[in-house]
Amino acid sequence: MANKKIEKTQKVCSLKDVLDVIGGKWAMPIIYNLSKGKMRFKKIERTVEGINTRMLVKELKNLEANGIITREVFATVPPTVEYTLTKKGEKLLPSIKSLHQWGEMYT
After folding, report:
1. How far is CA 14 from CA 11, 23, 28, 33, in A?
2. Which among 12, 41, 58, 105 is placed 20 to 30 Å from 77, CA to CA?
């Protein structure tokens, strides 16, 4: 009986961990837009409607820290930065696309 409680707690914790990574208001739209390929910061800012610069920086740092995206900096003036999805981030796409389709049907 105690084993079932532990298993249930572990499942809840892993779901909480997932929500910590992609549960923010802006994380899924950023990931969804990056599924189209490499993007520079300003393009992401333009494609994610309603996000401000400060919040975009915060979300990108969080996604990078969690291994969902990579950040590549080029030595130009001003510096050029490109973001892409990692393999780990690409594995989220089917789930995010399903949620997107559900949203179109029911909201």
Report:
1. 5, 13, 18, 25
2. 58
pLDDT in tens, the chain (107 residues): 444 554 555 555 687 888 888 888 999 999 999 999 999 999 999 999 999 999 999 999 999 999 999 999 999 998 899 999 999 999 999 998 898 899 999 98
Question: Could you give all domains of the chain from N- to C-terminal order, each with its CATH number?
Answer: 2-106 (1.10.10.10)
Q: CB of 44 within 8 A of CB of 59? A: no
Compute the 3-state secondary structure of the chain and give helix, strand, coil in percent, each to the nearest 5. 65, 15, 25
CA dist., res. 91 & res. 85, Å (int): 10
Q: How far is CA 76 from the centre of its chain?
A: 27
